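In response to a reviewer's request, we include the raw inputs and outputs for one of the modeled complexes. The three entities were modeled together in a single run.
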Amino acid sequence: MNENLRETLLGGQSFSWREDENGLFSAVLNEKLYTIRGLEDAASDPFLYDYFDLGYDYEKAREAIASKDDILHQAVESTGTIRLLKQDHWIATISFILSQNNNIKRITGLYNRLSKRYGHEVAPGRYSFPTAEEMKGASEAELRALGTGFRAPFILDAIEKKDILSEIDPLPFDDAMAKLQTIKGIGPKVASCILIFSYQRREGFPMDVWMKKVMKEYYPDKDPSYFHPYEALSQQYLFSWIRAGS
DNA sequence: CACCAGGCCGTGC
DNA sequence: GCACGGCATGGT
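The model returned the following structure tokens for the whole complex.
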């Protein structure tokens, strides 16, 4: 089994995780500090089993994607298995609002500053990401002071409209996309990330600056439906591949 | 100094 | 409908 846990956890779908000098991954989730070395440490924990989507056959998907065309074959073979995490709706929403016109390193920094400021300490020096309720009293000036910049009013709007997040699940994909985009600062790219990495919608295909490059160069006459039924996973492999230098 | 980062909003046509 | 500038901040 060739799993690329580092790419899954630190490659841009979650900003909750960090890797220490011994190769251990840790994150505060579900009011607990989780520390794992590999997926085998997650299988026995019900929360992590769900979070890591362990019930899905990623090996089968990987093979299906790799056999689709030469580019996908290269992309898949360039890395180990990438999974689609099942993250908390609120955390994913704020995370990807923070992600716009930003880079992974700085997004992670903002995530941690919000946690320290509005969350609570769960283990020494480790803070939970704040719930919408915990962020309720935040002001725009305060959020800007933490470095969120022009995204500050978007976060405030998300707090205001947090109830939307519990109404997404039953909706068809396009309706779910549209509903998420009623929150300021959420456009098509951010909405698709939220749907994939929190609502298990595998038909999402986030188009960021990297993926626009991939599509223009390798799939000029194609659109995301070409990758059906593995849109999201194909996108993850292509994203990882192009970002690593193809 | 420039340009970029897992984009979106407001405006103008 | 599409094109464009602006936007906070930190890194290269």
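As requested, we also summarize the result in words. Residues 128 and 207 of chain A are 29 Å apart (CA to CA). Chain A has a mean pLDDT of 97.
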